[in-house]
DNA sequence: ATGATTGTATTAGTACAATAATACAATTAA
DNA sequence: TTAATTGTATTATTGTACTAATACAATCAT
């Protein structure tokens, strides 16, 4: 678990995105109790306050929920988790396609780029139709 | 021209990415002389020092070149510009696909997401084969 | 009730991004 | 030569991300 200082993003934002991904990926199930802020901070090698900020941000997004002092829990509703997943991927796909447009790349070229990277870096023997 | 403070990225990095995109998009042609740091800073509404840092970063990438005190110029070699373009899009596509993998989305689902967004937000009447 | 664990709040200090105001060296134009 | 314009360097100051070290209130187990 290494967070980079070099990335140009504040630590707490990187943490937020990391935890958001972990939740969306199902590493923590809906309704599951999270480890305490101090444990998570220890695990991520950051200050508890920094982790706290990331978690309370995720709470504001509806992905986490604090029940009194008995701990922090992942949202119970699987639909919310799934919505977050869709949003994460949607935003990434959108920024890719937006940049394509800015650079004068049309949608078919954009798809080609996706295909190339899939074949280059995500080796999957799929035998799908297209070419 | 508005740069956001909210984005969680330092200004000079946002500026660097903005200028990189403009160059890759051909808003400045290969070999063309750029406006001076002071003018660019004025136009982008930032301090000249901040713009300077962004530009010297792009210089380190090989996209810009400083010729003595007669000004800063866009790299003459179109291949370099094109390489930057490819790299920008490659990185965005890669992070999308990587996140897909992290979230348990396979490549065909990933392509579906791309297609949906193209049809939703990038209205293009294309009549391509697939489906 | 006691003590441990939970999330939260506060305060201080360090590092760095960004602004501001210059100053300087080198080229270009007059 | 002189004056303007280029990129670059320097110094000081402000704001904020982050760390650090606590302290506090509320719950739970005993």
Concise summary:
Two copies of one chain form a homodimer. By secondary structure, chain A is mainly alpha-helical. The first copy, chain A, has five helices and two strands.
How would you describe this structure to a colleague?
Two copies of one chain form a homodimer. The first copy, chain A, is mainly alpha-helical and 131 residues long. The first copy, chain A, has five helices and two strands, in the order αααββαα. Chain A has helices at 11-24, 37-44, 48-60, 78-102, 107-121; strands at 64-66, 72-74. Chain A has a two-stranded antiparallel ribbon with strand order 1-2. In chain A, a hairpin with a 5-residue loop joins β1 (64-66) and β2. In chain A, α1 crosses α3. The relative contact order of chain A is 0.11. Chain B binds a DNA duplex (30 and 30 nucleotides) through α3.
Q: Round the mean pLDDT of chain A to the nearest integer and report it.
A: 88
Strand order of the largest sheet of chain A: 1-2
Assembly state: homodimer
Number of strands of chain A: 2
Silhouette of chain A = elongated
Largest beta-sheet characterization of chain A: 2 strands, antiparallel
């Amino acid at each position: 678990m290494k967070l980079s200082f070099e990335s140009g993003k504040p630590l707490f934002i990187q943490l937020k995105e990391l935890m958001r991904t972990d939740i969306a990926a199902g590493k923590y199930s809906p309704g599951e109790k999270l480890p305490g802020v101090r444990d998570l901070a220890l695990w991520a090698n950051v200050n508890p306050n920094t982790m706290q900020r990331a978690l309370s941000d995720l709470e504001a997004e509806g992905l986490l929920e604090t029940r009194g002092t008995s701990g922090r829990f992942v949202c119970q509703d699987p639909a919310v988790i799934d919505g977050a997943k869709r949003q994460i991927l949607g935003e990434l796909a959108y920024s890719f396609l937006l940049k394509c447009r800015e650079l004068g790349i049309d949608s078919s070229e954009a798809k080609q780029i996706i295909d190339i990277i899939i074949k280059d870096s995500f080796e999957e023997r799929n035998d799908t139709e297209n070419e």
